[in-house]
Amino acid sequence: MGHGKYIAPPKGQYQVGAGQRLELQFVVLPGESRDIEVTVDLTGPGAEVDLRGLYLCHADEQVRFHIVMHHMAPGCRSRQRFCGVAGGRADVRFEGTIVVAPDAQQTEAYQENHNILLSEEARAESRPQLEIYADDVKCSHGATVGRLDEEARFYMRCRGIPDREARTLQILSFLSAVTPPERAEEVERAVRNL
Hints:
3 helices, single chain, alpha/beta, five-stranded parallel β-sheet, 51% strand
């Protein structure tokens, strides 16, 4: 697989060889329940992978991400960024594993999953994991589950921005790092209807 940027299918296994780069984007819009399973093997020196995911749930959707990133060669880099919003009785789960093999020295691997809950019944569970068998690496993972920032909304309302618009702006800002430019208008429409 050469240099590529794809809107990814829900299940897939990818190999990224020496000097190659792979970008995958996942977008799950309101009303869609998805089970997304992806395995990526970085098999050659200098391989790079960028995974981004965005999900918007407003009712009873169930969205599952299961991502496995295998660093098998030296000098490879991977970055995973997944952000989503869950309302209603939606149930979102993210499980991501980064495995760094003993020979994969000088690996750089990062994994992030951030969630905003819009209702008391919505649920988001995040389980990032690292399995590191090499000693010259830079790896990290992080996860958050929270609510919209009420102080920021209050600040915007004090400056004449209606509450609904302030909420929309906060959500769009939260999702901006993972929104594919070619789908920005579609995502904005979906956020405005949450």
